[in-house]
Specification:
By secondary structure, the protein is an alpha/beta fold. The chain has four domains: 118 residues, 3-Layer(aba) Sandwich (Rossmann fold), CATH 3.40.50; 180 residues, Rossmann fold (3-Layer(aba) Sandwich); 77 residues, Orthogonal Bundle (Helicase, Ruva Protein, domain 3), CATH 1.10.8; 51 residues, Arc Repressor Mutant, subunit A (Orthogonal Bundle). It is built from 19 helices and 17 strands. Strands 6-8-11-14-7-15 form a six-stranded mixed beta sheet. Strands 2-1-3-4-5 form a five-stranded parallel beta sheet, with helices on both faces. A two-stranded antiparallel ribbon has the order 9-10. Strand 12 and strand 13 form a beta hairpin. 34% of the residues are buried.
Length: 444
Amino acid sequence: MKILVVEDHKNTRLTLGTILRRGGHIVDAVGTGKAALDVIGNGKFDLVITDLRLGDIDGMEVLSKTRRSAPETEVIVITAFGTINSAVRAMKLGAYEYITKPVQRDQILSIVGRIAEERHGTGTSRAATVTGPRKELQKFIGRSPKILSLLELVEKVAQVDVPVLIAGESGTGKELVARRIHQSSSRRDKPFVAINCGALPENLQESELFGYRRGAFTGATDDRKGLLEEADLGTVLLDEIAEMSPQTQVKLLRALQDGEVRPLGGNEVSYLKCRVIASSNKDLTTLVTSNEFRKDLLFRLNVIQIEIPPLRERVDDIPLLVDHFVGVFNRVFGKSITGVTPEALRYLERRNWVGNVRELRNCIERAVLLCTASFIDVGDLTQVSRQSGPEGPQQLLKEQEKNLILETLKKTRWNQKRAAAELGIGETTLWRKIKKFDLRMEDT
């Protein structure tokens, strides 16, 4: 990736640049906010890492202007003065991450590696990724009976052009299964569009999915295709479908029933030509019972259901997954770790992976960074557990943010408009935070 470091302290600037270059990235570095904005305006960067306090304009202004002038560029804000107000403001302005100093090598490389992986081959935002033709099938690592049975079902489903619902806990690989279906189907040479419904603010879901016409709302200065139309004979994955707003559920149901897409502010319609796959880590049947999800939409989406087993039900696959992730992060971080010791493997096989494959992946990622020997041992893995604990400053900051939002909601009796005003953030941002922290009225 091409990265711009904005830091007024020379030593910190040089250190960050060295870490990132050794991680295989192209790095430019400047010492002032003004210089950063000049460079951002002239060049194409995948990522900007900016200090909050600079000698001239501050990092918030760098963040704000970068998001406006280069919306595809991600921004990480770093500071030695972490406060809840600045964290909320940074996230409101669209920061990818907000981290406190001193920045650790493994921490920054982990975040940057995650951004690089998300952006690889997409050139789009986190809410939606669009992938064109790919010859190779996505790897779904496993040899356990449940995974072999799952892959057999996937191959059969790929040949039948009907909606599919993929169910499974967080971190089990629902998007990977959706991509496998797409790449095994006759649509493989067309785009694959993954839409994270949970990452789209409620008031933007409809316009992002269905598009809009100029003048449809404030800020709509041009016509724009929706993501359903962008798929164009390909496949659309509606990830976290349970997070879709009721209004958008109604319009999606109509599109599936009639096969037509109507943009906001427009009278013309286009035909829905893509295949629709939905996924959820929540039980949609339960949500239907509680009136949180439309029953008729569930029937439309759930023509074929695929259930992905959690990692605890496929322990035999852990050695394969570990070998795969060690190889991946050896390449990402320029390491040459051979594997894990037998003791470390037994430790991994006994762990209760609440976050499933994603949690295992993150564990191996940090272990590869921390390990100084040829093999990862138990000590490297337990060090990961300690450093990932709630006592870390980043986790503490998030807990403070969660508590502040919860207390404000309690104070305003869950009047989200008043709560957002007191917090100094938009209602959409507050809605997203409530979803992120899974806040409920009974918590207050």
